[in-house]
Amino acid sequence: MKTEIIQKYDKGVPRYTSYPTAHLFKPDFEASTYTDWLRAIPKEMPLSLYSHIPYCDSLCWFCGCHTKITQKYKPIKEYMGSLQKEILMTADVTGRGRPVNHMHFGGGSPTILVPEDVKELFQTFHEAFTFTDDAEIAVEIDPRDISQEAIRAWAQGGVNRASLGVQDIQDKVQRAINRIQPIEQTAKVANWLHEEGVHGINMDLMYGLPYQTVESVLETIRQVMTMAPERIALFGYAHIPSLKPHQRLIPEEVLPDFNERFEQQEAAAELLQSYGFVRIGLDHFAKPDDPMAIAFKNGTLRRNFQGYTTDKADAMIGFGASSIGALPSGFVQNIVAIRNYRAAIDSGNFAVAKSIPFKGQDKLRAAIIEQLMCYHEVDLIDICNKFQSSIDEFDYEISALQTFVDDKIARYQNGVIIVEHDARALVRSVCALFDEYHGSREMTYSQAV
């Protein structure tokens, strides 16, 4: 793709892990309304669960997550008590024993938990819900802060998929982002996972970090390939110091420019595909026999707040400070501040803070955007028919798409939009055409590339 085209469209756009996007969530959401939303989940609908552990023992300067740094375990232990209360409170509303086919532990760093608390957490979830035999239970792992005993506890709890944070193996890059992680440590943790029967291993890598070059990104991939991952998530670093002040510790002059970022992304994708990985969506890669690659092939791939997923559940309940739930009635987010979250839960109330109920064309537009993000193409007529709508309602968007067609970013014919293969890095910009809220308020987003 030509440099001038990349530069023209490399603007700030949402990541579209949801629609409407999280910045549109409104405050003053009543706990009683959340209770109504939970009760409205159809009894036959399987659930997906997300549990947020908002603690780390050190701050990675590239981080964009809601997390709190602590060297003491006491606040973590206290938090876990509140988290377990929230789980049981929720199950009492939805009805205990509801089937769960997907569970994700994120952070922060879930693996900051000691083995005893891991076991207690799983006991609470099993008291509240029933996990199906084929449930996927995933945990995000920081290889720097986990022991083999802790991995055993996660595996015994039912974890069958793990995502290891790697980012980059180069010492200069690691020092620039305040994440010193020898490749030997990562390999050791990967071996422990295999020994405990957890073979569904994903590696999180990044491009666009300070001091990264095309060759350094490729060398990181070559090294992680020795650990036999089933999936790779290749994220572009989002430098937004206005929203994440700690990112100011990263000197901007050593960040790759938009053209270098594009070259890093495409070179990495080419190398991963040479190793036999299937390129999925914007930033994921999976072995052909991995469930994500199979879902991609079958047309059942989804996208949610965890990124690309095989999770088919239409109701995801979030637990913990800052967690987000996606329910049939709308999105809801818990209080971000840990102290306030705990105060609400410990007083017997849900700790909800923000929400956005679905209205108008939200679900229709969400389906269009999700299809574009997953497959880089969408049949507008087909989706409109499913929602008993008409493609005529998107005359404005189709007209605006012409600029993308003229610049050879996309093709359009008979209601079908196809993002060109070498322009897939700009798919979020195409999605933004169907985002009726985009531009309605001033927001800072990550760059498209």
State the gist of this model.
36% of the residues lie in helices and 22% in strands.
Structure description:
It is a single chain. By secondary structure, this protein is α/β, with parallel strands linked by helices. 36% of the residues lie in helices and 22% in strands. The chain is built from 16 helices and 20 strands. The chain has helices at 3-9, 31-39, 74-94, 115-128, 148-157, 171-176, 183-195, 214-225, 258-274, 291-298, 338-346, 362-375, 380-386, 395-400, 402-406, 427-431, and strands at residues 26-27, 47-53, 55-56, 68-69, 98-107, 129-141, 161-167, 200-207, 231-236, 278-280, 284-286, 302-304, 307-309, 316-319, 324-327, 330-334, 352-357, 377-379, 410-413, 416-419. It has a 9-stranded mixed sheet with strand order 10-11-9-8-7-6-5-2-14, sandwiched between helices. A 4-stranded antiparallel sheet has the order 1-17-16-15, covered by helices on one side. A hairpin with a 2-residue loop joins strand 15 (324-327) and strand 16 (330-334). The longest helix is centred in the N-terminal third of the chain and has 21 residues, at 74-94. The radius of gyration is 21 Å and the shape is globular. It starts with a helix and ends in an 18-residue tail after the last helix. Mean pLDDT is 94; it is low at 441-445.
